[in-house]
């Protein structure tokens, strides 16, 4: 296995452009609340969705229930979203909107199969529900059905090009430079909290530095191989906590790496990267710290090298 590049890149300092308000006197309350989500004003959006629900407008209430759940999930208020999704399902059990909203909450809580069933049910009611297709993409990705996930995200984006989440997931799956173009459009038109926007800027800068190149590649093709797994034991009474395998990087350094069947790449220490002769591109120390990981993890090269072309989960 060869490690081609460990990359440190310059972080773009330019802040995303604030979207211009498109609200008008003729805009419906539901549309106005949805614009608040687009602007990153999730608390205000939740309050407006609650007002719509309290008025009981039959035409817009299912969408308001879904919008309320979406706002709460954006605020990381999973408990509130759980309660709101249950109330929405109770009021409109046969609505594609409320079923999708409930599925989003179940996915957030790790109930992947239940979420999948709800998304499928929502699509039987309305096959043009972009949010349900988006949810199916996340499920398929989580279950390692990457080709199907890419089709799902494309379908969601096609049905609703104005949905920021659909744009994000669709963009991540595109080849370079289309992925960068899509993510820059997302960052310019849709707002979020500062921390998530910072991560997105760093990811865009990373993709630009990578420029479509693969970082982790096999030294040679392998049709079949029997690999000895080595147990990782922290305490004898607990037994194996994980398993590792031995690999050689760039034909220069031996390493034991923990096996994770869901991983899309390798995470190694800086010391190991130096032994393997990893090449660092760019000179931004700020981005190097970002690649090494924040909050006490600066001694590790995070798996950003494996990010290109992979699905990045974000709040719906």
Write a concise synopsis of the structure shown.
With 316 residues, this protein is mainly alpha-helical.
Describe the structure.
Helices cover 50% and strands 8% of the residues. The chain is built from 13 helices and seven strands. It has two domains: 2-9 and 215-306, no CATH class; 29-195, Alpha Horseshoe (Serine Threonine Protein Phosphatase 5, Tetratricopeptide repeat). Mean pLDDT is 83; it is low at 1-24 and 282-311. The protein is mainly alpha-helical. The strands form three sheets. A three-stranded antiparallel β-sheet has the order 3-4-5, with no helix packed on it. Strands 1-2 form a two-stranded antiparallel sheet.
CATH homologous superfamily identity of the largest domain: Tetratricopeptide repeat domain
Overall outline: elongated
Tell me the distance between the termini.
36 Å
Roughly what is the average pLDDT, rounded to an integer?
83
Q: Give the strand order, joined by hyphens, for the main sheet.
A: 3-4-5
Weakly predicted, low-confidence segments: 1-24, 282-311
Q: What is the number of helices?
A: 13
Share in helix: 40-55%
Name the CATH class of the largest domain.
Answer: Mainly Alpha
According to CATH, the fold-level topology of the largest domain is Serine Threonine Protein Phosphatase 5, Tetratricopeptide repeat
Which H/E pattern describes the elements? EHHHHHHHHHHHEEEEEHHE
DSSP strand content: 5-15%
Specify the CATH architecture of the largest domain.
Answer: Alpha Horseshoe
Number of domains: 2
Topology of helices and strands:
Layout: E1 2-3, H1 29-38, H2 42-55, H3 61-74, H4 78-91, H5 96-108, H6 112-125, H7 130-142, H8 146-159, H9 164-172, H10 178-189, H11 194-210, E2 216-217, E3 230-232, E4 242-249, E5 253-258, E6 268-269, H12 270-275, H13 285-292, E7 300-301
Antiparallel strand pairs: 1-2, 3-4, 4-5, 6-7
Helix pairs in contact: 1-2, 1-3, 2-3, 3-4, 3-5, 4-5, 5-6, 5-7, 6-7, 7-8, 8-9, 9-10, 10-11
């Amino acid at each position: 296995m060869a490690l081609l590049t460990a990359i440190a890149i310059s972080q773009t300092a330019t802040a995303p452009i604030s979207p211009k308000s498109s609200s008008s006197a003729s805009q419906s309350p539901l549309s106005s609340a949805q614009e608040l989500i687009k602007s990153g004003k999730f608390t205000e959006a939740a309050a407006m969705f609650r007002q719509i629900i309290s008025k009981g407008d039959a035409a817009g209430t299912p969408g308001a229930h879904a919008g309320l759940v979406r706002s709460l999930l954006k605020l990381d208020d999973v408990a509130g979203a759980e309660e709101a999704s249950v109330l929405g399902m109770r009021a409109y059990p046969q609505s594609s909107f409320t079923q999708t909203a409930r599925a989003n909450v179940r996915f957030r809580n790790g109930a992947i199969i239940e979420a999948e069933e709800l998304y499928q049910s929502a699509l039987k009611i309305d096959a043009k529900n972009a949010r349900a297709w988006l949810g199916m993409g996340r499920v398929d990705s989580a279950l390692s059905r990457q080709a199907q996930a890419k089709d799902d995200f494309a379908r969601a984006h096609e049905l609703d090009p104005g949905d920021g989440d659909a744009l994000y997931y669709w963009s991540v799956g595109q080849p370079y430079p289309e992925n960068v173009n899509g993510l820059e459009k997302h960052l310019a038109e849709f707002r979020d909290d500062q921390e998530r926007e910072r991560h997105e800027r760093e990811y865009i800068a990373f993709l630009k530095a990578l420029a479509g190149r693969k970082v982790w590649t096999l030294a040679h093709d392998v049709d079949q191989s029997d690999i000895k797994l080595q147990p990782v034991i922290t305490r004898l009474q607990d037994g194996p906590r994980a398993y590792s395998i031995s690999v050689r990087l760039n034909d220069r350094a031996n390493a034991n790496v923990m096996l994770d069947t869901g991983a899309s790449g390798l995470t190694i220490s800086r010391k190991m990267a130096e032994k393997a002769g990893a090449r660092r591109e760019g000179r931004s120390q700020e981005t190097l710290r970002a690649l090494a990981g924040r909050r006490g993890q600066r001694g590790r090269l995070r798996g950003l090298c494996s990010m290109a072309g992979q699905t990045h989960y974000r709040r719906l």
